[in-house]
Amino acid sequence: MAQFPVGRVLLITGAARGIGAELARQATAAGARVALLGLEPDRLAALAETLEGASWVECDVTDQAALAAAVESTLATHGKIDVVVANAGIANHGTVAVTPPEAVAKVIEVNLLGVVRTVTATLPAITASRGHYLLISSAAAFTMLPGMTPYAASKAGVEQFANGLRLEVAHKGVTVGSAHPIWIDTDMVRDLKQDIGTFRRSLRRMPGPLGAEVSVEDCASALLEGIARRARKVYVPRSVAVLSALRTLTLGRLVERAMLAQARTQVPEFEAEVAATGRFFGEHSTEKN
Question: Looking at residue 281, what DSSP letter applies?
Fold first, then answer.
């Protein structure tokens, strides 16, 4: 398990469940203190009670004033912030054609602009501590599936934001990494599998790391190791690094032709399944349909 200097403070957004909650558990076990930010106060409070030295604040990452208040509260409690994990994220169910425009925009607002707002709200504190950012992108930043267009666009944006930010803050002693998980066993992925049979069947047919499913515990462990090393990239599983290196192929014309052939039948089936559920976000999403 990765070890941190005693008292290292991690601020984690989207900490109420899934990757954020498990990362908070493992970071505390490794000797850190955690500040939990999220939209589910009951879950945040219950989690904080189990973690020594933890604090929590209900916070919407799309609200700059709320983020500023959460950072102020964290600094008042812990005195500093050493690491920020911008983890809050959502995914819609549906293609652009059938998803309400507000839902499409909301995915990008939370996943990309939420990361941007989190960074800008915490940058003075992270600069003061010469700290580290881990921005949660995805393998979707360099792969593509029909029905994940807003999600993939937002995660590609997160990766590029991390790449640029890294250059801008390096002279201040601040480091920046981006994380690229594949399918992690979280409520978001389970909801998608439950609602969309087309997705379940596609997942079983995906080759190599594209079809890999990783436990939330293993994902959090990989992220924690990356934070300890101040890694510029964290791939979960590590084989996802191959997809990143080959992105000119995975996003190229040859792969696209194969996917277009499948999409002719899969996309209408997918859209029909989404219509049958009557919702555009999963059951456990904090977003309302």
Answer: B
Catalytic, 151? Answer: yes
CA neighbours closer than 13 Å in the CB half-sphere of residue 209: 21
Active-site residue identified among 56, 133, 151, 235: 151
List, for residues 63-113, the tens digit of each pLDDT value: 999 999 999 999 999 999 999 999 999 998 889 999 999 999 999 999 999
pLDDT tens, residue by residue, 261-278: 888 888 888 888 888 888
Q: What pLDDT, in 10s, does the model give residues 6-52?
A: 789 999 999 999 999 999 999 999 999 999 999 999 999 999 999 99
Q: Which stretches within the chain are classed as H helix?
A: 18-29, 41-49, 64-78, 101-108, 114-129, 149-169, 187-195, 197-205, 216-229, 240-245, 247-250, 253-277
Task: Report the domain count for the chain.
Answer: 1
What integer pLDDT is reported at residue 289 of this predicted model?
53
What is the CATH classification number for the domain harbouring 54?
3.40.50.720
Strand partners, 10: 34, 83
Residues 6+ apart with CB under 8 A from 131: 81, 82, 83, 84, 125, 174, 175
What is the extent of the structural domain holding 210? 9-277
